[in-house]
Amino acid sequence: MKSYLQHITLASIMALSVIGCTVEPIDQPTGEKSPVELRVGLASDDLMTKSTNTDGADKTLRAFTGDTRLFFMMVAEKESSPALYGYNYGKAAAVSTPASGSSSEVSFDANYLYWDDAYARDTRVSVYSVAAANAEIASATIGSKTVGTSNKVIGFSADTNSPVVDWTVGNGSAQTEATFAKDDLVFSNNVRKIDESHDNRLKFHTEEGDMHHKFDKGELNYYHALSRITVFIKCGDGFVGNGSDFQFASNPTGADNSFALNGFNGSGTFDVKEGEFTAVSAQNFSSIYLQNTSAQKTNPYYTLGAYVVPGTDIKTGTVSDAFSFNIDNNRYDISMSDLYNAIKGNPVNVVSDEVNSSILDDGKLKAGVHYQFTFIVSKTKIGGIVAKVVDWEDVVAEEQTPSNARISLVLEDRGSAVTSNVALYRAEDTGSNSVVDTYQGYIWGTGYSNEGSNFSYDPGTSKWTSSWYWPGNTTYYHFRAVSPSSTAVETDSENGDYFEITAGESLSDYTWGAPFKDVDPSAKFKYSLTLGFDGTDAHQIHYGIGPTNDIIRVMMMHMMSKVTFVLKTTADDSAVSFGDGTGSNCTTITLKNINKAGKVLMGTGLVSTTDSRSDYLFTATPAPVSGQVTWAEYGAVPQSLDGVVLVIKTADNNLYEVTMKDVLSSSVSSNNLVNPYEEVSTGKFRIHRWYPNYNYTYTFKLSKTGIKSIDATILEWEDVVAGDDNVQIK
User: Fold this and answer.
1) Which of 271, 275, 203 is CA-nearest to residue 54?
2) Burial of 717 by CB count in 10 Å (0-12 exposed, 13-18 middle, 19+ buried)?
3) For residues 170 and 285, is the Cβ–Cβ distance under 8 A?
4) 414-418: long-range contacts, CB 8 A cutoff, minimum separation 24
5) Residues 6+ away with beta carbon under 8 Å from 273
6) Are 415 and 555 in contact (CB under 8 A)?
């Protein structure tokens, strides 16, 4: 991070200043109150060998590179009188390329604190201030008072307060670009009475020998209250070297990398007066800010950044995975002692065999220090391999094959045969020790294991064959099938195993199947919003199946809702234009307030949504064909259409909105499933939700609204009559 100094010369209660608290007296305006004026500056953190002492020795000062909001607590004191506390807010302007010793202007929106409202010329003023360097946060709470953009000034009063600020880096679990921009806490406490010989407080000059009898203009020096960490990860041996395999593993938290930070202080209470944190808490970050990937392919490396609260002891710390990350499925852990030894390994950092106290405070991270670590990441080479083959063991058995099959099955069978791209699952359900051919137990929540590798399709018989055996007559299986075969089935012992489904324009035709019981071939199945395909009146899915030689028929259902939108227009002057599908000359369709993700329970086929509702803008923008546009089919997650709106905008800027739950249909097939829709009028069904295994086609004929007849009227005159009794002629 760059460093920044700020300078202000405004008639306002605060501004920023250079280190050292030089006094520049100012005139008191005649007949007006005198605002307390300040200037500000930010100490550099460019070199981690720099100290952070509060008198500013050996520190570089520069202007802020981003607009920064400043928050102040001022303490006005007079001998033998109670201290008065006031609060204010100001804004330092950014300087794009600050040079050493440069400054930032600070502005105030007429929110001043005045000497006259404290003890006037008898006042001694201390100033305490905090800010997030180069970040426009809205407010800060100092002690019990909050000052900011909506509460810019709190006048002097005798309410006792302490200049402490609670501060947490990151969002509680990760540090992102958004959190990183406002985490860098800076503070100023050099305008105050430190001891009897060192008094930087502001005052009115009245002593003999003073050049002027004027109020001080204070200068505030700002320091970084946090420690900063930058990590460079470079590509080493074992990787291709072009960045194709030098990539972070996906992170289940949804962060933008998988670099974790563990055991570092992440929050605490900062005492501005003392310039140190108290009551710190350690925190684990699932990821930190991925700052730079621009050279990931040409010269593979990553740059990451983090802020931490000072005080973490890396010299004696025992955390073995203080830094932990995954690249190309290789995990790397760096311990706290590794970090300490890396710092100590650079002779620049060491004095008398110990790390310089300006870098580490007896092994603890210090405020205002920027720690930079570089890791060259390599894969471990495979060592020596020895292979041996053992002699065959001979086993001779008689040719006898008794069967333990006891169950006879007649299961429902309809639809087209599945010949490929299917994974078969089974879940074991063990009954009593006695043989029960009429076994009725079922546990939909049991765990399903993928047995696809033990199955093969036989085109001669059009059946799947397996190498499975029933372990015994007390073992029963629930069989399920999922397509595509690559679909991951997740384990959930409490609610039942499931797999996830995702909506999109390129239809992902997820199918799920189970053995449906002996029913009439013309019977219709029911789908329940609570029981899935297990039905509502009676079980439709077969109970656990025991040893049998009969065919186990698995009937598969489409788990998505297939949705197609067809747009048409009229052949007369009321026709709309769909455009030619190029650039902005196209028609757009948006589904608003829609769920895009869901899951399917393995036991019952019940579908539920798993995400928050959002909008979906169709990407297809085809040109019209024979007066109509047909959008690519949309694989939707089955769901309620309450609140879902379809918005159509034509190329000639006609806008149409359709409340989806109110759409009616006179054509709802019931070849395999019982029609779930309410008939609102003869032959008309309200399509209030999308169900699995349904193919929905919506056709809209769009036209412009004609202008109705126009009537024009003219109002009667309003009369004013002047009589000879009130008009005088002279």
Assistant:
1) 275
2) exposed
3) yes
4) 414/521, 414/555, 414/672, 415/555, 415/556, 415/672, 417/462, 418/481, 418/483, 418/511, 418/513, 418/556
5) 128, 162, 163, 189, 192
6) yes
Q: What six digits make up the tokens of 513? A: 């199947």
Structure tokens at 705: 């609204």
In 579-688 the beta strands, taken as DSSP E runs, fall at: 579-582, 585-586, 588-594, 597-601, 607-609, 614-617, 628-630, 634-636, 639-640, 645-649, 655-659, 664-665, 679-681, 684-686
DSSP three-state, residue 679: strand
Residue with tokens 């149409």: 656
Those residues with Cβ within 8 angstroms of residue 548's Cβ, 6 or more apart along the chain or in another chain: 405, 406, 407, 408, 409
In 3D, which of 482, 480, 475, 384 has the Cα closest to residue 430?
Answer: 475
Q: What are the distances in angstroms from CA 217 to CA 4, 123, 203, 394?
A: 20, 13, 9, 100
What letter represents residue 127's amino acid?
V
User: Parallel, antiparallel, or unpaired for β 37-43 and 217-224?
Assistant: parallel
Q: Which of 57, 220, 198, 12 is nearest to 129 (CA)?
A: 220
Distances from the Cα of 178 to the Cαs of 172, 248, 525, 578, 612, in angstroms?
13, 20, 51, 40, 22
Burial profile 608-627: b = 16 or more Cβ within 10 angstroms, e = fewer: bbeeeeeebebebbeebeee
Please give the structure tokens belonging to residue 621.
């923008």
CA angle 444, 447, 449 (to 5 degrees): 125
CA distance 474 to 730: 127
Contact between residue 5 and residue 18 where contact means Cβ atoms under 8 Å apart: yes
Q: Is 660 helix (H, G, I), strand (E, B) or coil?
A: helix
Q: How many CA atoms lie within 13 A of 154 on its CB side?
A: 24
Could you state, in chain order, the average pLDDT of each consecutive group of 10 residues for the chain (730 residues)?
28 28 34 63 39 44 83 91 92 82 75 86 89 90 94 91 94 88 90 82 69 67 88 82 75 60 95 93 91 67 90 92 83 86 81 81 89 83 54 41 65 86 82 47 72 74 78 78 90 88 88 86 89 84 83 88 85 84 83 96 94 88 58 85 92 90 86 87 87 87 74 64 54
Strand ranges (DSSP E) for 455-560? 455-458, 463-466, 475-483, 489-490, 498-502, 511-514, 555-558
- Residue in 663, 534, 689 with CA at minimum distance from that of residue 598: 689
Q: What is the dihedral of CA 468, 473, 475, 479, to 10 degrees?
A: 50
Residue 401, H or E segment: none
**472-524 residue pLDDT tens:** 667 788 888 898 989 999 988 788 899 999 999 877 889 998 888 877 888 88
Helix (H) or strand (E) run with residue 77 in it? strand 68-77
Length of the chain: 730
The backbone torsions φ and ψ at residue 339, rounded to the nearest 5 degrees and listed phi first, read -65, -45
Strands 145-148 vs 139-142: parallel, antiparallel or unpaired: antiparallel
The one-letter amino acid code at 87 reads: Y
**Structural tokens at position 85:** 């506390």
Which of helix, strand or coil describes residue 656? strand
Interatomic CA distance for residues 364 and 315, integer angstroms: 7
DSSP code of residue 703:
B
Residue among 352, 382, 676, 416 nearest 554 (CA): 416
CB 411 within 8 A of CB 552: yes
Is the peptide bond between 459 and the residue preceding it cis, with omega within 30 degrees of 0?
Answer: no
- Alpha carbons 339 and 232: distance in angstroms, whole number: 13
C-alpha span between 330 and 398 (Å, rounded): 51
What dihedral do alpha carbons 481, 482, 484, 486 form, nearest 10°? -100
**What whole-number distance in Å separates Cα of residue 536 and Cα of residue 674?**
11
d(CA 337, CA 76): 47
Q: Are the C-beta atoms of residues 412 and 519 closer than 8 Å to each other? A: yes
Cα 398–chain centre separation: 65
Tokens representing residue 81 in the block:
């009188």
Q: Give the predicted TM-score (pTM) of the model.
A: 0.51
